Hints:
Number of strands: 14
Shape: globular
Bound molecules: NADP nicotinamide-adenine-dinucleotide phosphate
Radius of gyration: 20 Å
Strand content: 15-25%
Order of helices and strands: EHEHEHEHHEHEHEHHEEHEHHEEHEHE
Amino acid sequence: MREYDIIVYGATGFTGRLVAEYLGSRDHGVTWAMAGRSLSKLEAVRGELGLDVPLVTANADDPASLRAMCERTKVVLTTVGPYQLYGSDLVAACAATATAYVDLCGEPAWMRHMIDAHEAEAKATGARIVFSCGFDSIPFDLGVWTLQQAAIERFGIPAPRVKGRVRAMKGGFSGGTAASLKATLAAGAKDSGVFKLMIDPFALTPGFEGPKQPKGLMPEYDETLGAWVTPFIMAAINTKNVHRSNALLGHPYGKDFKYDEMMVAPGLGEIGKAAAEAMAKLNPLASDKGPKPGEGPSKEDRESGHYDLLFIGEMADGQKLTATVTGDKDPGYGSTSKMIAESAICLVKDVEGAGGIWTAGGLMAAPLVARLKANAGLTFDVG
Ligand SMILES: NC(=O)c1ccc[n+]([C@@H]2O[C@H](COP(=O)([O-])OP(=O)(O)OC[C@H]3O[C@@H](n4cnc5c(N)ncnc54)[C@H](OP(=O)(O)O)[C@@H]3O)[C@@H](O)[C@H]2O)c1
């Protein structure tokens, strides 16, 4: 028996605070606590949010404190990132203590390192460790899963080629996300092994390598859509997680499955081409003037944010089918805080499943889709 169902670790940070606010906003039927490295900061956040929840202290630099935290809860929900800087000892502690884990990681080389280091122990203890439970990569992972379920139902086989297309997306970035991207780029520049993992679509499926994948690195005209498309910054992590879900589920999408993600540029013809080229040059995270740790999009920007994703399945005989996923609020924070909270609740209430290092699609696709539709402002529809 554990004291709590869920501990929100990093509750003093920008995203962790939103998760705490969401969990405190209605009765989910779970017991939970807020955790961080500073008791006084936790007390201040709890007071500002008007919550009455217990507080737990643990420092990412102190493995004994992490282990003690894990032993008190069924699930650790962590927003303490960059994960490659602060997350390794926590994954180790969860694997050792059979504690379930969800995070918002979009750092593929670190994830592969954690799979290599801790998957065997997690399988042995029964710890269910699920990376990437935010905008990367839940809507994409579960969007492809939804599409492939429909393809198998309609055609008897999965679609060998799926295109993920971001039709609309409105939101901003936080200091933690900017720090994570910078840490990933710095690690890739220092170590060619890390760089190789970052560009390998099958970096998260050790022992399996599928066919050559569409690169999605340059603007191009998408014949299926009749529109210009441009590279999507999150594709690097989402495509790897989609391939990992396929592998964890025993390749229901096929071993010849091809998948890419791109953003649809506004406008037709030459205007669409120019927009796609301009969008490809934008990198909102490149500047040092971006948000600092603890900062992120305003409440107004989060409330007015949204996203609209299209998945196109192309069958070998030319038939097509589509699925759409939409979310209310901004993708990275308003929607992400609800997605990770519902993922943790799903692990407590809806799924058992074996220990191991999972994706959301690999471990809890159907119950999580139902939860996100019912509670978190997402839609999943097959066209
Ligand atoms: N995948 C997605 O869709 C998505 C979306 C949003 C965020 N993220 C990721 O989520 C992570 C958090 O982002 P954020 O903007 O919320 O970051 P943030 O505001 O900087 O918050 C970071 C949190 O980590 C804590 N922390 C830092 N060092 C620690 C240590 N040694 N021990 C314990 N706690 C420590 C901070 O505590 P203090 O308050 O005490 O400093 C704070 O609570 C990042 O990795 C980001 O990339 C991903």
